[in-house]
Amino acid sequence: MLIAAKLEQVSKRIADACERAHRHPSEINVIAVTKYVALTRAQEALDNGIVHLGENRWQDAKEKWEQLPLSSAVSSDKPIWHFIGSLQSNKAKDVVGKFDYIHSLDRLSLAKAIDKQAEQLDIVVPCFIQVNVSQELTKQGIMEGQVYDFLNELKNYRHIKPIGLMTMAPFEVEPEATRPVFRKLRQWRDDIQNRSDGTSSITELSMGMSNDFEVAIEEGATWIRLGTILVGEKEE
Ligand SMILES: *Cc1c(COP(=O)(O)O)cnc(C)c1O
Q: Where on the chain is N6-(pyridoxal phosphate)lysine found, per UniProt (predicted)?
């Protein structure tokens, strides 16, 4: 299916979810996750007005990062890149300076590696703190109760700007079952805001994927990360 058609369907579902939650679609930033697809398919997303691209691994992203936008393309805008996969500290140098946002900051050793690289490049990297709300042992992310301490520690890393929280809900056949996970992440974000009298830079919520983005929007998502449903699973 063409991305134009997929985007039309997804946009309608986003608009409907926003209406149910009394939100405006302009509050929702859509990241097209291109990890499953090739260069031309990623360009097709850009040609359809997608601005944000997400990838999990530098090896998978490299060709797209180096070549997009294609010179033959309708859209000649450079994508805004999001690193959404788990990141080993020794790979931070591949990512910092190339990706505009990192969604998977979940430990101090990684913060240190990102900060070091960012300092060398003289940049500040906007990062989401990945939280393991569902407490699955297989999932990345900071556990409940450690978020505030982690944020305090991050103040020592001046080349990192924490801008929000990110989580992945467990896959559920019935998307409604993910709601408590998203609600909890929003409550933590609100709590951080309240503790800081609203001055915290933690304003964003990166949550919701193909299977559960509507529930995430209803619970306050400001960034949704869509792979399968928006660009496809593999070349079609
Ligand atoms: C792959 C991936 C996505 C997109 O997954 P879909 O279910 O295909 O939408 C979103 N977020 C993260 C962190 C991912 O790894």
A: 35
